[in-house]
Description:
Blueprint: E1 3-8, E2 11-16, H1 41-54, E3 58-61, H2 68-76, E4 83-87, H3 91-103, E5 109-112, H4 116-120, E6 125-130, H5 140-146, E7 147-157, H6 160-163, H7 168-175, H8 185-203, E8 206-216, E9 219-228, H9 230-238, E10 240-246, E11 252-255, E12 269-276, H10 283-293, H11 302-315, E13 323-324, H12 325-331, H13 339-346, E14 349-352, E15 355-361, H14 365-377
Parallel strand pairs: 3-4, 3-6, 4-5, 6-7
Antiparallel strand pairs: 1-2, 7-9, 8-9, 10-11, 10-12, 13-15, 14-15
The chain binds S-adenosylmethionine (SAM) and zinc ion (ZN).
Binding site for S-adenosyl-L-methionine: 44, 69, 88, 115-116
InterPro entries: SAM-dependent_MTases_sf (IPR029063), Trm1 (IPR002905), TRM1_arc_bac (IPR022923), tRNA_met_Trm1_C (IPR042296)
Binding site for Zn(2+): 246, 249, 262, 265
Amino acid sequence: MRLVEIKEGKARVFIPDPKEYEKNGKFDPSWAPVFYNPRMTFNRDISVIAVSVISPKSIIDALAASGIRGIRYYLESYSPIEEIIFNDKSKVAVDLIRKNIEVNEVKVAKITNRDANSLLYEVITDYVDIDPFGSPSPFILSSVNAVKNGGHVAYTATDLAPLEGSSKKSCKRKYDVNNSKLSFSKEVGIRVLLSKIVREAAILEKAVEPIFAFYNDYYYRVIIRVTRGAKRADESIEKLGYFYECEKCGFSGSSKDPIEKCPRCGNKVKISGPVWLGKINDDSFVHKMIDYLQNFSYIKNFEAVSILLHKILQENKYPPGYYNLEFVASKYKINVPAREKIIECLGDASQTHFSSKGIKTNKSFDEILECMKTLSNKV
Ligand SMILES: C[S@@+](CC[C@H](N)C(=O)[O-])C[C@H]1O[C@@H](n2cnc3c(N)ncnc32)[C@H](O)[C@@H]1O
Ligand SMILES: [Zn+2]
C-alpha cells in the first residue's frame, strides 16, 4: 500500500494514496484499504471544538480508520486527555493507526483491533466517538453502555435516505420509526436518529440529553450526554412524539400521539414517528463552543463553523420542525418571497441551518401565510 501524507488541523497523517485506487479517473474514499474522507474535515473540525468544551479524560475512537479523529482530539483539544483507545476491526487500519500515532507523538494511545461492539461492552470511558459507514444504529446500545454517568457519545450518520423518509422500510428496520417524506425532512431525520438513541439508552435505564446536533453536506452529527436512572430514562421517552404534515393545505406540526386528520382542514396527514421532540442543542454548550472558537483560527472551516454555531443558537429558541417556504407557497400558488422578508414580517422567527428554504417561528400558520401572501404580491 503506497501512502501519502496529508495535514488536517494540527495532525499529519498517512493515508493510502488515492491515485492507486482510482477507477476511470474517479475516486471514492471507500475504495481505499483504509478510509479517509476530506469531506468530513468540517465534522472533525467542529468535533475538536466540542471535545474541548466537554473535556473528557478518556476517549474511545471506536471506528478509527486512519486514526485522524482521535489524533486531532489529542493534539488540539483544550484540556489534556489521559487515554485514547483507537479501535478498528480492520488489521490494515490498525497498522496505519500505529504509524500515525507515532508520527504525531500521541503519548496516551492504546490501539485495539476488535469489533467495536465487543470492545464497548468491556470498557468504561468519558467519551465515545461513533463514526461509521452509514448508520450508527448497530453501535448505539454498546456505546451508551460504555460511558460513565454524565459521559458523552458522538454519532455521525450518513444514511440520510432512511432518516429523511426516502427509504421507509430501511428506516423501520434501522430506527424502528414509521417515517414519511415531509417538506421539512432534513430536521425530521436528526430527530429520528435521536429517538432511536433515546429508546436504546432507556433499555439500559439511561437518559439521553442532546447537547449538540447538526446537519451538514451528506451527514448528521449528534452529541449526547448520558445519565443513569430509570426515572430519567422515562422522562427522555416522554419527549418522543410525532410530526404530521398536510399535503392539501400545507399545515404541519407535532403531537404526543399520532394523528390522522389535519387539525386545520381535516384532510388525511402524513406522519413520521416516534421522533425526538425535545431540544437538540444546549444553548450554554453552543455558547461555550463559540467562546472557544477563537482559539481555533487555524482550522480549515473556521468561518463555516462560526456561521453554523450562530445559526444553531438562533433557531434553538423555536419549537421542533420548520416551514418549507417553497412547499407552502406551492399550495397557495404564490411566489416565494425572500426568506429574510418573511422573518422580518413575522417578527418572532428565524432561519434554520437545515434548509435555505426553511423558517422557524412561534407565530401561527395563518400569520405565516398572511406575510407570504402580502410579500408575494410585491414580488
Ligand atoms: C467511516 S470509517 C471511520 C472514519 C474515521 N473515524 C475518520 O474520521 O476518518 C469507519 C471505520 O469503521 C471500521 N469498522 C466497521 N465496522 C466495524 C466494527 N464492527 N468494529 C470495528 N470497526 C469497524 C471500518 O474498518 C472503518 O475503518
Ligand atoms: Zn390541511
